[in-house]
Amino acid sequence: MSAQMDKRRPYIRSMNSWWKRDPYFIRYMGMEATSVLVALYAAILLVGLLRLSQSEAAYNGWLDALKSGPSIALHAVILVVFLYHLWSWFKVMPKTMPMIFVDGKKLPAETITYTGVTVAVVVNVIVLIILV
Amino acid sequence: MKRSNAPLVWSLFGAGGMLAALVGPALVFVTGIAVPAGILMSRDLLSYQRMTGFAHTWLGKIIILAVIVLFLWHAALRIFHMLHDFGFHAGAGAKLVCFGLPFLCTIAAAYRVLMI
């Protein structure tokens, strides 16, 4: 049936800004949006790898680009986004992993979140110590 | 029955998300801020000689590939679902872009890291 013939005009609720209606949805979208900068960072590293496989001059060009002010500012933003990812990843972990029972009681969500965050912070610090 | 590729994509998503939480902030700080700005770390940490030396070892190759490839697949799945959340109905085109691109990047990264 063509659009003109159709007498029904069903109400279709707009999807514009639905996620701004509720702080819970905003946090959900914030968590999902971290992926854009995670992808960007992976792309920056991938370019570095391509340059490394080409020549020393090509790789040094990539290193010089990293030294520019805008690049350092961008990486500061990426760093904040990764820290938010770290937090939100373990915040939703109690919902994404199978339930754990200890002495017949469900392990509280906060325990899972704080254990995960602590482990991640420790691993990040170990990586930094290895590299310094 | 047609086998689903969902478990594969989901495990790449989970592994990438976990790796991004465990080492992501430290890596971003080192490669994007500390070494380029010369704060706290020596500038030659990422020098050509050191990085080719690292990429010549099997452990180095695995670490480089794991970080790039898993971060990409993690992000790909979230971006694919975000399209749906914004009301773009995820058809074959969205799938092709969201999963084809990381697939090509995976092939390129694996090829390059083996070449070094």
| CA-based shape of chain B | globular
Percentage beta strand of chain A: under 5%
User: What CATH architecture of chain B do you see?
Assistant: Up-down Bundle
CATH fold call of the largest domain in chain A: 3 helical TM bundles of succinate and fumarate reductases
Oligomer: heterodimer
Largest interface: A-B, 51 and 51 residues
Helix proportion of residues of chain B, in percent? over 70%
Task: Determine and state the CATH class of the largest domain in chain A.
Answer: Mainly Alpha
CATH superfamily of the largest domain in chain A: Fumarate reductase/succinate dehydrogenase, transmembrane subunit
Return residue spans of chain A where pLDDT drops below 50 for at least 5 consecutive residues.
Answer: none
Structural class of chain B: mainly alpha
In DSSP terms (H or I, runs of 4 or more residues), the helix count of chain B works out at 4
Give the mean pLDDT of chain A: 91
